[in-house]
C-alpha cells in the first residue's frame, strides 16, 4: 500500500462569514470557535455570540485588540477600494495597498479528532501587551523593554513607561528602565551590542546588515502554558526580503518542544491546529500586526564547552509585520550600484503591506502556479538567505542559457553552476573588500541560485555579464525588478588549509581498503601525528607573545569582535569567550607564562578543543583539504580527471605544492553513507585551467558528473574533501554506485502544483491554504537523525556498510535530505513498515560503543571507529597531562618567569595614588581622616560585591546571567567622600580627569579596579570579570621594553578597527627567527 502526500479533496466553503481577529490566544481547537478565532462556519455563530455574553465588561485584551483594529481601519480604509487588484498584479509604486487577509480554511468543515470530539487545549499563549507609551518607539527599543520585562518577570500590561528620543543613547535607555519603579532592584539581562542598538535606530533598509529579532516559545510541559522568551537582538547579514521591506518588519519565533510535548508534532489534529494558529491568526505584538509566512527545522547549534542544554525539537517560524506604528518606506537602491543604475533601482513599499504582497513580490505567484506548491514554499528560504548584496545588473547582462550541459544519456553535467565575467567578478571583489580575486562565488540572483565560476574562455571580452542555466533557476522571476537583478553573495572560494577526516568517511575507507589492517594503522598514526603537532604548537605559543596571539586565532572558531550572537563583545570586564579573553589580555601585555589567570584559560581552551576533537573524532589529515566543486567548461579534463591548484602554496608537511598534478587523490563529500561516496580519481594539470586556484575542477565529459556520484551532490556550493595522502590513497579501491532503490510503496513526493490550490480556493485565499498545508507538513518531526542513527547502528551491528539492507537505508537517507522540497509524508508508521520489511523486524538497536562513551566497551571492541576513538582518548589524556605539567613549570633561561595571580603593575596604580594622597594630606591637613574613610568605604563596597558574587555563583543559571548583575553593582560603586576636607576636594576632583569620553577608563574606574585587584587577586574570575577592561589598560600603560625604565607607549585602537586586525604570520616568523627589528624604535 502506498502512501502519498497528495492534497486531500476538501469541500468548497461558500457564503461563510469571516470575523476579524480580536484575540491572540493560542488554543488547539480548530473545531470549537472562541473569541480569538477568525474563521467560522455559519453554524458556529451562536457559539460566537455566547462567548461574548460570558462577560459584559470588556477585558484589557479586548480593549487592546479593538484599539489595534481602529488603527488598522484608519490605515487601510482609503486603500480598500483597490485591494482586489493587488492580487492580480503586484504594483511597483510607493503605495502598496493593505488587505485584510480572510482565508477560507480548506479544512474548516467538520474537522474533528479521531474520536469525533473537538481538540483538547494543551497550550495557551497570549502575546505580551505593549505599553501605549512606547507605541511609536523604534522596534529595538520596544523589543528591549519586553526582553528586560521577560527576564525580570514583569507584566507590562499595566506598566506606564514613556518613550524618549534620548533613548537613542543606549546608556540613557538602560538608566531610565533601571530607575523605573516596576524594574527597580531587579536583576537585568545582558545588553545588546552597542552597534546593534545604533543600527536598530537607523535606516532598516541597509543593504549590508540587519538587526535580527528572535523569540522563543518553549513547550516544556503539556499541562502548562508555554514559556515566552525574547533573545538578545543580533547583528547579521541582511536578506533580500530585509532589504526590500526593512528588517524591522521581520521576527523569528522558535517553537521549542521538550520531551513531554513532542507528541504535539506527532498528533495530526494538534499539528493542524498549531499550523492554523500560526498561519491564520494575526499576532498582535509590539503594536504591530504580524503574519507568519515561513517555517523550517531549526539547525542544531554546536554545544559550547562546559554547557549542557536539554534536547529540544525546534521549528523556526518567520513572521512579517503587515502594519503598525513606525514602519517606514523602502528605497531599494543598493549603495554599491553605479550611478547610472540608481534611478531604475528606486522602489518603495507602503508601510501597510500584507503577506500576500510580500510573497507575490518575491515569488511572482501567478507566473509559478505550475510548480509544486511544497517546492515553491521551500523557495521562500532563498529570500531569507543571509547574503551580501553587490552589483545591480542590467537585464541584458544576465544571459539565460536554454539548456544545461548534458551527457550522452541526457544527465546534467553542470547541475547548479554557471560562469561569470572577469570584470563583474572584479567588481564583486572590490565591493566585498577582498584582497584576492575569488575564482568562484556561491550566490543568488533573481530566481536563481548556485555557484558561478570565473569565465575561462580565451580572449573573452571585458564585458560585465553572468550566465544562468536551467538547473540554477528555482522559480520564474520578474527580471525587471532591480532587487531581483542584484547579485547577492553567500560565500567565495578561498584557501582552505588541511582538512579533518569526517567520521562518516572512516567506515568507507575501511570497507574499500585493499588492506584493512593497514588502513586502521594509517589513520591511527595520523591521530598521533595531529595531536603531537598540536601540542607542540601550544607549547611554543606559551613562550612567545606574538606566537601566542597567532595560536589563539589559529585555534579559534571565531575571531574576537565577531558579533555572532548580538551580545556586546564584553560581559562585564572581559570578552564573552575564551579566545576573546586571551586575545584581549595578550594585546594588553599579559603573558600566559606569568599571569596564572591567562595560563588557566589557555589550558581550558586547549582542553575544550581536544574534547571536541575526541567527541567528533576529528582527525586532521595533513595531506588533505576541502574545496568548492566546479566543472571544466572548456572540456579539457577527461572523465575521472580533476585539477586542484593552490594559492598560496600548500604545505602538507612533506612538501610545498602549487597543484596536485600527477597524483592519485580521493574525493568525497558529506554526508557519506554508501561505499561509492568516496571516489579515487587522477589529479592532472592543464595549463588552460591554471588560473583556477583553491577550487577542485571536475570533468564535464562522460556519462555522469562526478559530483552526483558523491552522495548525490551537485555544484551549487558543495565542498569536496580531497586527500592525496599516499598511505591512504594507494590502499583504496573505488566502487561504482549501486542501483537506485525505489520507495514508492512507502511514500511519494507531493507534486500538486500551486495552480490547483488557486483554482480550488481562488485569489487570494489559495495562498493561505498553501501556507496552512506547508506549515502542517513542516511541523512534522524530522526523521533524518533517527534514521541516520539507526542505519549507523545497523552497519555497526552487522559490521558492514555494503550489505543490501544498509545500502537501502543509505539511499533512504538521500531521499530524506530532500524531504522538505519533495513534500512526502514520513512518520512513525512509515518508519515502522520500512524496518519491518527491510530490516528483518529489527525495531530497536543498541547504540554503538563510540556513541555511548563507554570506555570499557571501546577498549575491548575490534570495530574501527571504536578503536580510533579509544586511541584518541588515551592520547588526549596523556597530552593534557603533559601540557598541564609544562604550563605550570618554570620558563626557560636565566630570567625564568614566575606564574602567579599577582601583578605589581596593576597594584601600583592604587599604591601610587595612595602614597601621593598621604603626602599631600600630611603636608596641608595632617589631622584629616578623609583618606582613611575613603579607602574604608571603597573596600567595604568591593567586599560586598565579592560576597554578592559568591551568592550568585551558587545559583543554577548560566555563568553570564549570574555575572552580569554583580558587574553592574561593581560598576555602580560611586565616589563617596563624606568629610569637608579641602585636600579631599582637591584630590577627588582629579578623578574627573584622565581619559575623557572613554567610558570605564576614567581615573576613578582605574583606581577602583586597581584596589579590587590588590585585595582579591587570588579570586581570579571575580577580579577579572569585574575589572578586566581597566586592568588591561593599566598593564598596557606599564609594559616595558628592554630596560627597566623603558616604558613602551600603548597604541589605542577603536573597536571597529580592532575586529579586523589579525596576526601577520610572516612578521611573526621573522620575530621568531630574530630577524625583525624592534618596531617600537622604528621611526
Automatic annotation (TrEMBL):
Coiled coil: none annotated. GO terms for cellular component: nuclear RNA-directed RNA polymerase complex. GO terms for molecular function: RNA binding; RNA-directed RNA polymerase activity. Transmembrane segments: none annotated. InterPro entries: RDRP, RDRP_core. It is an enzyme of class 2 (transferase). The keyword RNA-binding applies. One of its GO terms (biological process) is siRNA processing. The keyword Nucleotidyltransferase applies. Keywords: Nucleotidyltransferase, RNA-binding, RNA-directed RNA polymerase, Transferase. Residues 230-870 form the RDRP core domain. It catalyses: RNA(n) + a ribonucleoside 5'-triphosphate = RNA(n+1) + diphosphate. Its EC number is 2.7.7.48. Belongs to the RdRP family. This is RNA-dependent RNA polymerase. The lineage of its organism: Eukaryota, Fungi, Dikarya, Ascomycota, Pezizomycotina.
Amino acid at each position: 500500500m502506498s502512501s502519498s502526500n497528495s492534497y486531500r479533496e476538501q469541500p468548497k466553503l461558500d457564503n461563510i462569514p469571516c470575523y476579524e481577529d480580536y484575540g491572540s490566544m493560542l488554543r488547539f481547537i480548530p473545531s470549537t470557535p472562541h473569541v480569538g478565532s477568525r474563521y467560522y462556519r455559519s453554524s458556529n455563530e451562536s457559539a460566537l455570540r455566547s462567548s461574548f455574553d460570558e462577560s459584559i465588561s470588556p477585558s484589557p485584551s479586548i480593549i487592546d485588540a479593538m484599539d489595534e483594529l481602529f488603527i488598522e481601519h484608519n490605515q487601510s480604509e482609503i486603500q480598500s477600494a483597490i485591494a482586489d487588484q493587488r492580487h492580480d498584479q503586484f504594483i511597483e509604486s510607493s503605495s502598496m495597498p493593505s488587505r485584510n487577509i480572510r482565508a477560507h480554511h480548506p479544512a474548516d468543515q467538520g474537522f474533528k479528532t479521531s474520536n469525533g470530539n473537538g481538540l483538547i487545549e494543551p497550550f495557551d499563549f497570549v502575546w505580551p501587551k505593549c505599553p501605549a507609551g512606547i507605541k511609536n518607539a523604534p522596534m529595538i527599543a520596544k523589543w528591549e523593554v519586553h526582553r528586560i520585562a521577560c527576564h525580570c518577570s514583569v507584566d507590562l500590561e499595566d506598566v506606564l513607561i514613556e518613550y524618549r528620543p534620548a533613548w537613542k543613547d543606549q546608556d540613557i535607555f538602560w538608566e531610565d528602565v533601571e530607575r523605573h519603579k516596576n524594574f527597580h532592584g531587579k536583576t537585568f539581562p545582558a545588553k545588546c551590542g552597542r552597534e546593534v542598538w545604533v543600527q536598530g535606530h537607523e535606516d532598516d533598509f541597509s543593504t549590508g546588515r540587519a538587526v535580527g529579532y528572535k523569540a522563543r516559545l518553549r513547550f516544556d510541559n503539556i499541562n502548562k502554558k508555554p514559556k515566552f522568551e525574547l533573545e538578545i537582538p543580533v547583528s547579521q547579514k541582511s536578506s533580500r526580503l530585509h532589504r526590500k521591506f526593512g528588517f524591522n518588519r521581520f521576527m523569528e519565533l522558535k517553537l521549542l518542544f521538550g520531551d513531554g510535548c513532542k507528541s504535539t508534532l506527532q498528533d495530526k489534529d494538534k499539528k493542524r491546529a498549531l499550523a492554523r494558529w500560526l498561519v491564520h491568526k494575526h499576532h498582535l505584538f509590539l503594536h504591530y500586526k504580524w503574519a507568519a509566512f515561513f517555517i523550517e527545522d531549526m539547525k542544531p547549534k554546536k554545544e559550547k564547552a562546559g554547557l549542557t542544554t536539554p534536547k529540544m525539537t525546534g521549528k523556526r517560524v518567520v513572521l512579517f509585520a503587515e502594519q503598525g506604528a513606525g514602519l517606514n518606506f523602502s528605497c531599494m537602491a543598493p549603495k554599491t550600484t553605479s550611478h547610472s543604475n540608481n534611478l531604475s533601482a528606486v522602489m518603495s513599499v507602503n508601510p501597510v503591506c500584507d503577506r500576500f504582497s510580500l510573497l507575490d513580490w518575491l515569488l511572482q505567484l501567478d507566473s509559478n502556479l505550475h510548480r509544486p506548491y511544497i517546492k515553491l514554499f521551500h523557495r521562500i528560504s532563498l529570500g531569507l538567505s543571509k547574503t551580501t548584496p553587490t552589483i545591480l545588473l542590467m537585464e541584458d547582462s544576465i544571459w539565460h542559457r536554454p539548456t544545461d550541459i548534458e551527457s550522452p544519456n541526457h544527465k546534467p553535467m553542470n547541475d547548479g553552476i554557471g560562469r561569470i565575467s572577469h570584470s563583474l567578478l572584479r567588481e564583486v571583489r572590490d565591493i566585498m573588500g577582498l584582497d584576492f580575486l575569488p575564482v568562484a562565488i556561491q550566490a543568488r540572483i533573481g530566481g536563481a541560485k548556485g555557484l558561478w565560476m570565473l569565465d575561462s574562455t580565451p580572449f573573452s571580452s571585458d564585458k560585465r555579464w553572468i550566465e544562468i542555466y536551467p538547473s540554477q533557476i528555482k522559480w520564474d522571476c520578474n527580471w525587471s525588478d532591480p532587487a531581483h537583478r542584484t547579485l547577492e553573495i553567500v560565500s567565495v572560494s578561498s584557501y582552505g588549509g588541511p582538512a579533518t577526516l569526517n567520521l562518516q568517511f572512516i567506515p568507507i575507507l575501511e570497507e574499500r581498503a585493499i588492506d584493512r589492517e593497514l588502513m586502521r594503522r594509517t589513520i591511527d598514526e595520523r591521530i598521533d601525528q595531529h595531536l603531537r603537532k598540536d601540542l607542540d604548537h601550544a607549547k611554543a605559543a606559551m613562550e612567545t607573545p606574538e606566537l601566542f596571539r597567532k595560536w589563539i586565532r589559529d585555534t579559534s572558531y571565531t575571531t574576537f569582535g565577531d558579533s555572532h550572537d548580538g551580545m556586546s563583545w564584553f560581559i562585564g570586564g572581559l570578552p564573552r569567550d575564551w579566545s576573546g579573553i586571551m586575545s584581549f589580555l595578550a594585546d594588553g601585555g599579559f603573558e600566559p607564562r606569568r599571569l596564572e589567570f591567562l595560563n588557566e584559560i589557555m589550558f581550558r581552551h586547549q582542553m575544550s578543543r581536544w574534547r571536541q576533537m575526541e567527541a567528533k573524532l576529528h582527525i586532521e589529515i595533513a595531506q588533505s583539504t576541502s574545496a568548492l566543486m566546479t566543472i571544466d567548461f572548456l572540456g579539457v579534463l577527461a572523465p575521472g580527471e580533476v585539477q586542484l591548484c593552490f594559492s598560496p602554496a600548500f604545505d602538507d608537511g612533506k612538501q610545498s605544492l602549487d597543484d596536485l598534478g600527477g597524483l592519485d587523490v580521493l574525493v568525497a563529500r558529506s554526508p557519506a553513507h554508501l561505499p561509492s561516496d568516496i571516489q579515487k580519481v587522477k589529479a592532472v594539470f592543464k595549463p588552460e585551467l591554471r588560473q583556477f586556484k583553491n577550487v577542485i575542477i571536475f570533468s564535464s565529459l562522460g556519462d555522469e558528473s562526478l559530483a552526483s556520484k558523491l552522495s548525490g551532490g551537485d555544484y551549487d556550493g558543495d565542498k569536496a574533501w580531497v586527500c592525496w595522502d599516499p598511505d591512504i590513497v594507494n590502499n583504496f579501491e573505488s566502487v561504482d554506485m549501486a542501483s537506485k532503490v525505489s520507495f514508492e510503496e512507502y511514500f511519494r513526493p507531493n507534486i500538486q502544483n500551486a495552480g490547483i490550490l488557486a483554482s480550488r480556493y481562488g485569489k487570494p485565499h489559495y495562498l493561505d491554504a498553501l501556507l496552512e498545508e506547508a506549515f502542517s507538513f513542516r511541523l512534522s518531526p524530522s526523521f533524518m537523525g533517527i534514521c541516520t542513527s539507526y542505519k549507523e547502528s545497523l552497519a555497526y551491528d552487522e559490521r558492514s556498510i555494503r550489505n543490501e539492507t544498509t545500502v537501502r537505508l543509505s539511499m533512504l537517507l538521500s531521499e530524506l535530505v530532500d524531504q522538505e522540497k519533495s513534500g512526502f509524508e514520513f512518520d512513525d508508521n512509515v518508519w515502522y513498515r520500512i524496518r519491518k520489511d527491510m530490516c528483518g523486524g529489527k525495531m530497536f538497536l543498541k547504540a554503538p560503543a563510540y556513541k555511548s562513551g563507554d570506555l570499557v566497551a571501546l577498549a575491548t571492541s575490534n570495530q574501527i571507529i571504536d578503536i580510533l576513538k579509544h586511541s584518541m582518548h588515551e592520547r588526549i589524556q596523556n597530552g593534557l597531562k603533559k601540557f598541564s605539567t609544562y604550563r605550570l613549570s618554570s620558563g626557560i633561561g636565566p630570567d625564568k618567569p614566575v606564574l602567579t595571580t599577582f601583578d605589581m603593575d596593576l597594584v601600583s596604580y592604587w599604591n601610587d595614588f595612595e602614597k601621593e594622597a598621604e603626602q599631600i594630606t600630611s603636608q596641608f591637613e595632617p589631622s584629616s581622616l578623609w583618606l582613611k574613610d575613603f579607602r574604608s568605604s571603597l573596600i567595604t563596597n568591593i567586599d560586598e560585591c565579592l560576597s554578592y558574587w559568591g551568592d550568585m555563583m551558587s545559583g543554577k543559571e548560566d555563568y553570564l546571567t549570574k555575572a552580569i548583575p554583580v558587574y553592574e553593582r561593581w560598576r555602580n560603586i560611586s565616589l563617596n567622600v563624606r568629610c569637608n576636607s579641602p585636600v579631599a576636594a582637591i584630590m577627588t576632583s582629579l578623578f574627573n580627569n584622565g581619559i575623557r569620553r572613554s567610558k570605564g577608563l576614567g581615573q576613578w574606574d582605574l583606581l577602583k579596579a586597581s584596589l579590587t585587584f590588590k585585595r582579591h587577586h587570588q579570586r581570579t574570575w571575580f577580579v577579572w570579570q569585574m575589572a578586566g577592561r581597566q586592568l588591561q589598560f593599566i598593564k598596557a600603560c606599564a609594559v616595558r621594553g628592554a630596560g627597566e625604565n623603558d616604558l613602551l607607549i600603548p597604541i589605542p585602537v577603536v573597536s571597529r578597527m580592532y575586529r579586523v586586525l589579525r596576526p601577520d604570520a610572516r612578521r611573526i616568523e621573522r620575530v621568531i627567527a630574530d630577524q625583525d627589528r624592534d618596531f617600537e624604535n622604528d621611526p
